[in-house]
TrEMBL record:
Domain of life: Bacteria
Listed InterPro entries: AfsR-DnrI-RedD_regulator, BTAD, OmpR/PhoB-type_DNA-bd, TPR-like_helical_dom_sf, TPR_rpt, WH-like_DNA-bd_sf
SUPFAM superfamilies tied to this protein: TPR-like
The protein's name: BTAD domain-containing putative transcriptional regulator
């Protein structure tokens, strides 16, 4: 049963009043069939109608709608507010516009024509773009200036704004190309300018205008567009144009020189003032790194606190400077800026960096409080913030501890922000640096499809920058993941290929910690422990805050039969970065270590923490199964193994042993036979404690399944 319909609604059927015109691009506007404006009583009603209309016809639960728009009220009040808002929509649109029952609501697609809804059909129909795309000339931000109803609604609003923006860009780009093909270059340029106005940081739009100007013979204007693009990206994002944009500008400049274009040809040779004014400059440095400025920490204007605040900020600069891919601004350049979020944007623009670290030191009695925040100036948002409250007995010990923790968090959060930023951008707009981070974003998702996408991004990065070391390390990491997650049939060949790629990375940059970690872990897999230890130690020396270096060292110790030492290094990794992309693997290895140290309860707890961090990980379930068997809970273990096998049909006893580090053969009877390989620890455990019996027909001659 639905809600009762007011009498005035029943007197106004939809057929007499609709369809209505709902405009959501550039704000909110509702008009009836005669073109007259229709007012809704509240902003919440407007937002509710927009939500139901994108797209209309979808069924929405009433509880979800109530929580989405009235999360500040209790459940009964929220439901009452929803009923009132729906009654207002029926009064405006007619009783048949809304359908559903007491649990759900839907909006009749025939009741409304929505401008934002037409974008998708226009974008998918290139043949009708020029004739039917008039509404995009009035394109504005989806629900511009409308406040968000809740955090969840804000997420939806962000998604729709991005989707509509991308669709409008596709439409305008198609219009410009069709106009250019039809010979109307002036109108095509006008459309290109409108396209650029939607997002002036979109390099693809700049390139389209450059091509349109060059096609019209206006090469000087095309190169001016490039210079404007380069200056804008430098000012707003602190980056250079992508290699694709640079190559296009070079081609245009070359064509202009060949054509004898006086407007762009240097009058007095390549080094003359005229040449410097007209010819574009090309970035010749290595692919960009992570640029950061540490503002002076604020004290309380007394000697001790100012001394500590200055010492902490100086130590952070020193430690960050040890990271080879961090460009850290010298303290002399930051001394004039106050420490606070308000100064971040100004400092970032003046110092030409993307990230700003600001902080303060306060003392109250015997307690010291150090507060820090990391700000991404490109999006004017706080990436990470933390507060450290410590006893103030030993200021120097406090300083060392806080600096270590801050460095670890900056390192982790900045790299995570780079991966997320690259993942949000359109693939064709990515340069080599961003392609590497986008590849790592996919690599850390640990699925077969993402594994292939990661490999493609690394290979594309090397096409753009053959001398860039990190994509080689990324390809090596792909090989490492392929073995770990059973994405390869030839383990030996894949490990060999990964080692070769990691060695290429280090040949290009011997000081990169990530490359050392990947090579060290690969060498651990093939049993070359001395070389593995060398590279993992190098990684820790180069980047003492890199959690994955300690994880690699923990793997090496575990596979060498030293689970207690492995636990120490895992603890270091977790303390340095509890939110690391490999966090579930940290916990899984911790579970294996506890298992082999006969602490099955701790092994179970660590395995459960691992599955909570990554529900798709199979190894944590195998560790959990082994712990459950040791605890006498065999039926639970069988259920866990079944879950693991559903997630990974290629899971075998041999593959489990390869990661756990106990290489053995398990017969159908469950007896354990050490394989006899040198350096591997043999188990004396009874067969009942092995997970092997839970695999179906686990004879080696039946693929150990």
């Amino acid at each position: 049963m639905g809600e009762s319909v007011p009498a005035h609604d029943r007197a106004s059927p939809t057929t007499d009043r609709g369809p209505f015109e709902l405009c959501l691009l550039g704000g909110f506007s509702l008009r009836d069939a005669a073109g007259q404006p229709v007012e809704l009583p509240t902003r919440k009603c407007e937002l509710l109608l927009a939500y139901l209309a994108m797209p209309a016809g979808r069924l929405h639960g009433r509880d979800k709608l109530a929580a989405l728009f009235w999360s500040d009220r209790d459940e009964e009040q929220a439901r009452g507010s929803l009923r009132k808002a729906l009654s207002s929509l029926r009064a405006a649109l007619g009783p048949q516009a809304l359908g559903g029952d007491r649990d759900a609501v839907t909006l009749d697609p025939a009741a409304l024509a929505v401008d934002a809804g037409r974008l998708a059909s226009l974008a998918s129909n290139p043949a009708g773009i020029v004739e039917g795309a008039a509404p995009v000339w009035r394109y504005g931000e989806f629900l511009e200036s409308r406040p968000s109803a809740s955090a969840e609604f804000s997420d939806w609003l962000t998604f729709e704004r991005t989707r509509c923006r991308n669709l409008a860009q596709t439409i305008l780009e198609g219009m410009a190309l069709r106009l250019a093909d039809a010979g109307d270059l002036s109108q095509a340029q006008s459309v290109g300018q409108r396209l650029l106005a939607i997002d002036n940081l979109r390099e693809e739009s700049h390139r389209l205008l450059m091509r349109l100007y060059a096609r019209a013979g206006e090469r000087s204007r095309a190169l001016a567009q490039f210079r404007g693009c380069r200056e804008l990206l430098k000012r707003e994002l602190g980056v250079e144009p992508s290699q694709e944009t640079v190559r296009l500008s070079r081609q245009i400049a070359s064509d202009a020189a060949s054509a004898g274009d006086e407007a762009v040809r240097p009058a007095d040779g390549p080094g003359s003032p005229a040449a410097r004014e007209t010819a574009p400059s090309w970035p010749t440095e290595r692919p960009r790194g992570l640029s950061i400025a540490v503002l002076p920490f604020a004290g309380k204007s007394d000697g001790e606190q100012d001394f500590l605040a200055n010492g902490i900020s100086q130590d952070i600069i020193t430690e960050l400077s040890r990271q080879r891919d961090f460009l850290v601004i010298a303290p002399q350049s930051t001394v004039g800026y106050a420490s606070g979020a308000g100064e971040a944007g100004i400092a970032a623009r003046d110092l030409d960096v993307r990230y700003i670290l600001a902080g303060s030191v306060r003392r109250g009695g015997d307690q010291l409080r150090v507060a820090v925040q990391l700000i991404d100036a490109s999006g004017d948002r706080c990436v990470w913030a933390e507060r450290y409250d410590r006893p103030a007995q030993d200021v120097f010990d406090l300083q060392d501890e806080v600096v270590r923790r801050i460095i670890a968090n900056i390192d982790a959060e900045v790299r995570a922000a780079e991966r997320e930023s690259a993942a949000r951008k359109r693939p064709e707009n990515l340069d080599a640096w961003e392609l590497f981070h986008r590849g790592m974003w996919h690599a850390y998702r640990f699925t077969r499809d993402d594994h292939q996408l990661a490999q493609g991004h690394f290979e594309r990065a090397l096409e753009l920058e053959p001398g860039f070391s990190l994509p080689y390390a990324g390809l090596a990491y792909v090989c490492l993941s392929a073995v770990t997650w059973h994405f390869t049939a030839d383990v030996g060949q894949t490990l060999g290929a990964g080692i070769a790629q990691a060695e290429k990375a280090l040949a290009l940059d011997a000081g990169d910690a990530f490359s050392h970690v990947v090579l060290g872990r690969l060498l651990t897999f093939v049993g070359d422990r001395p070389r593995a230890a060398h590279h993992l130690s190098m990684a820790i020396n180069l980047s003492p805050s890199f959690a994955q270096a300690y994880f690699g060292m923990a793997q090496l110790h575990f596979w060498s039969g030293r689970p207690r030492e492995a636990l120490h290094h895992i603890g270091q990794a977790v303390r340095l970065n509890p939110r690391d992309p490999l966090g579930s693997m940290f916990m899984t290895l911790q579970s294996f270590c506890h298992y082999w140290l006969d602490d099955s309860a701790a092994a179970e707890a660590a395995a459960r923490r691992a599955t909570a961090l990554n529900a798709r990980e199979t190894w944590s379930r195998l560790g959990l199964a082994a712990a459950l068997v040791a605890l006498g809970r065999a039926e639970e273990a069988r259920t866990v193994i079944a879950e693991a096998r559903r997630m990974d049909q290629g899971l075998t006893v041999a593959s489990f042993d390869a990661v756990v580090g106990r290489c053995r053969t398990i017969c159908a009877s469950g007896s354990i036979q050490p394989c006899g390989r040198p350096g591997w620890v043999e188990t004396k455990r009874p067969a009942a404690t092995c997970c092997g019996p839970f695999f179906r027909d686990c004879r080696t001659d039946q693929n150990e399944r």
